[in-house]
Amino acid sequence: xxxxxxxxxxxxxxxxxxxxxxxxxxxxxxxxxxxxxxxxxxxxxxxxxxxxxxxxxxxxxxxxxxxxxxxxxxxxxxxxxxxxxxxxxxxxxxxxxxxxxxxxxxxxxxxxxxxxxxxxxxxxxxxxxxxxxxxxxxxxxxxxxxxxxxxxxxxxxxxxxxxxxxxxxxxxxxxxxxxxxxxxxxxxxxxxxxxxxxxxxxxxxxxxxxxxxxxxxxxxxxxxxxxxxxxxxxxxxxxxxxxxxxxxxxxxxxxxxxxxx
Length: 261
Prior knowledge:
By secondary structure, the chain is α+β, with helices and mostly antiparallel strands. About 50% of the residues lie in helices and about 20% in strands.
């Protein structure tokens, strides 16, 4: 038996195929085997849900939802809160284009699972078809799918690069505290360009950290990290919070001393 829930599940499965195709072509720039397997299975199950009139047909959608929920949802959630792999934890950055695709894939998988369960219950006479909120849910999902794909493509076009987390942690670091900069002084020897990691732990009174004599600065909100590259000659240089609209804290400052070789 085919009902509105199983038709919706089949539609979502095809949205999953579209998501996999677009992400592989424009975001990931390749097609991982797990994604290919996901797409092929999604096409097959969508066809079964739309053609088979057996009342237990939604079970196939449930099995798909369970399988790929296990494969996609936990890894997505874990990657948001802990570093599984230093090369992969860029997922935690909002500007990462893979975030939207990963979230969308997990959302679609869960939607297939839930709608297939609803389809099975409807076939058993345990659930009413076409409740008043159902069209709104479908419209919301279609809109979310479109926006997530467009946002991921946009971010891919403007994403700078991936950075190994352990590499970042080894860089010389300056932390903007609520009322100071740590360390207050730094000493280096002239030579190669210096890459600094700047961490904003201020009370949001400072958004821009700068070396005014070097005309170098980086903009970041509170609890964000930025990178700044400088190549100073021997001498002393001030680093400080740079005024930005009404955001400034003159106590966030320090001194860099560059010694000759």
